[in-house]
Amino acid sequence: MTPEIALTIGLLVLAIVLFATEKLPVDVIGIMLVMGLVLTQVLTVQEAVAGFGNDVIITIGGLFVLVGGLVKTGMIDLIGRRMHKVAGDSEFILTALIMFSAALAASVLKNTTTTAMFLPVIIGLAAKARIPPSKLLMPLAFGAILGGSCTLIGTSTNLAVSGAIQRYGQEPFSMFELAPVGIITCFIGVLYMLFIGRKMLPSRGGEQSFTEQYQIRDYISELIVLPESPLVGKTLAEADLGTLLELNVLGIVRDSVRINAPTAKERIQRRDSLIVEGTIHDLLRVKEEQGLEIKPDFMLSDTELEGDNVELFELMVMRDSRLVGQTLKSLRFRQTYDLTVLAVNRHGETLVNKLSEVAFRFGDVLLVQGDRNGIEQLTNDRELLLLEDMSSANVRIDKRKWAAAAFVLFIGLSLSKVVIGYDIPLAICVLSGVLLLLATKTVRYSEMYSLIDMRLLVLIACMMSFGVAMESTGADKYLAGIITTYFGSYGSTAVLAGFFILTVALTQPMSNQAAALVVLPVAVKAAITLGVNPRTFIVAVTYAASFSFITPLEPACVLVYTPGRYKFMDFVKIGSILTVIVFAAATFLVPIFWPL
Predict the structure, then answer these.
(1) Smaller CB count within 10 Å for the chain: N or C?
(2) Angle at Cα 363 formed by Cα 362 and Cα 364, nearest 5°?
(3) Bridge partners, residue 275, by sequence
(4) Domain span(s) for CATH 3.30.70.1450 in the chain
């Protein structure tokens, strides 16, 4: 062992200890690790910062923006509600649904893409089901990692290995060559998480802050049934707004006649005004769902305020406000302030009257849409108290098609190698989708960078630089040589298992692709020396590079690390057992499907 190899491995061990103690943020540890490599002259400065220029950084950053487009248009919330409708509040069913959905999606979209796409869905789903996010996010990442091993395009590692093995006289992988063992190990991994791993997951997160309590406040509002609404002609029971939109119908106003507490058999007609109770987010997403529209205070037209300066605010009526005892109509609220009251909340009392006829009381909270200048006029006069800026809740429903188009564009371009034989770099595929979001103002330029988790990108870039150190010092080949030397006397299966273990170990400090490509030539040479089938070793290394569960350094795991409030040892405890299980399954199954 050379001094450079010893130093590199020593720094790796030190970094893992620091990760485990969690005394410092993970991105800070990554930066310290890179600095140590430069100061000890293992890497030059240029090599140390090369990871920050890697296309993977651009790709993951772009994925954050693409997912942000789905969030801004409410599509993530739509997916979450569909999943909640199927699973309800059952943690077991939700975990199973999340893992199988993630595995299925990752077999096409890659595990990092899938985790990034589902992350906000699962966080919202956890809040809706009142389950700590830590109970669902690790299963999401593990499900995506397991699913990515099932197809050629499931991970970039599979594609990288498929291209590399041609230099050894091997045919590239077919689309579903890896599916038999991938599907079986995926199923085994899901069963482990459902019956064992789930019980070991910590219970963290999900507490309601003061802000969150306001966001879940129930409001009473009026919804106009548009002529083209699919609800027209349906009974309230058939419309099932309680399940679909989580709105409680308290009454109906039809031709100026109010129907209080309508029965489930009451049929919905065109231009009916439904008096409903629900949260801010439930009310704001009604139009794109069922052809409904929030009725702006006392205005008879269906026009809505438009423009980039329109925001949402929560305002509370103060004790000495001149609004007390007045109604929107008597105040000429819309004309005076150019603000629209979308809903009213009164604690302890259900309001079923039209908003324009509600006499305000001290403590009433109004959900108001309009320009900030109008809000400031009211708050400066101390008529109303600004409780919260709800602009983020203003879902861009009309941009939903562009958010979907951007994601479809990204997926379509990323599959170009399989479809047309021309490989478009993944970073270019992502950036194409991002540019579409910006061009259509689905995501505004001013908010684009706020959607990106910079800590994650720093950590990944630092670990990529460390992977360069493993290669340049020969630490990777040194570890591979140990496998051949010490396991060869126990037979080919033992050597196969040894390379599997080595590859899994190297995926912690290195990228999955780098670990696989580092071990691959040594594994092929060992197979030829032993006189066995090299493809068996190639497939085993490919699977091992995908099964990275032991630490949160795998990109899919890093994505859920902070939102799930996990500790480093949570992954070590739960992921190590899962690794042993899939290791045993793969070591047994690979020689069956690819005989030695």
Answers:
(1) N
(2) 95
(3) 222, 251
(4) 308-394
- Which residues does 496 contact at the CB level (< 8 Å), separation at least 6? 536, 537, 540, 587, 590, 591, 596
pTM (2 decimals)?
A: 0.57
pLDDT at 98 (0 to 100): 92
What's the CATH number for 308-394? Answer: 3.30.70.1450
Q: From 475, 505, 507, select the one nearest 160 (Cα to Cα).
A: 507
505's tokens:
């170990």
Tell me which residue of 518, 398, 362 sits closest to 75, measured CA to CA: 398
**25 vs 115: CA distance, rounded Å:** 22
Q: Average pLDDT across each block of 10 residues of the chain; the chain has 596 residues. List them in order.
A: 83 74 75 88 85 76 79 69 77 92 81 78 80 92 92 76 77 84 94 94 65 46 84 87 75 82 85 79 62 59 40 72 83 77 62 66 75 69 60 63 86 74 79 91 81 73 75 74 75 88 79 74 80 91 88 80 83 93 93 91
Report the Cα 412 to chain-centroid distance in Å.
Answer: 20
Q: What is the pLDDT of residues 357-404, one digit of tens each?
A: 778 877 777 777 777 677 766 766 667 776 644 444 456 777 888 988
Which helix (H) or strand (E) is 495 found in, with range? helix 492-506
The number of residues in the chain equals 596
Task: Looking at 451-511, list the stretches that DSSP marks H as alpha helix, in order from N- to C-terminal side.
Answer: 454-473, 475-487, 492-506
Q: What is the pLDDT of residue 288?
A: 54
Query: What local confidence, expressed as pLDDT, does residue 393 receive?
Result: 44
- Residue 209 has what pLDDT? 39
Residues 149 and 117: their CA atoms lie apart, in Å, by 18
Q: How far apart are the first and last CA of the chain?
A: 32
Enumerate residues 6+ apart whose C-beta is below 8 A from 297: 328, 333, 334, 340, 341, 355, 356
Burial class (CB in 10 A: 0-12, 13-18, 19+), 350: exposed
Angstrom CA distances, 230 to 227, 400, 475, stand at 9, 19, 64
Backbone angles phi, psi at 573, to 5 degrees: -65, -50
List the Cα angle 446/452/454 in 5-degree steps. Answer: 120
Helix (H) or strand (E) holding 202: none
Helix (H, G, I), strand (E, B) or coil at 386: strand
- Contact assessment for residue 486 and residue 90, using Cβ atoms and an 8 Å cutoff: no
Assess contact for 455 and 24: CB atoms under 8 A. Answer: no
Rounded Cα–Cα distance for residues 295 and 473 (Å): 68
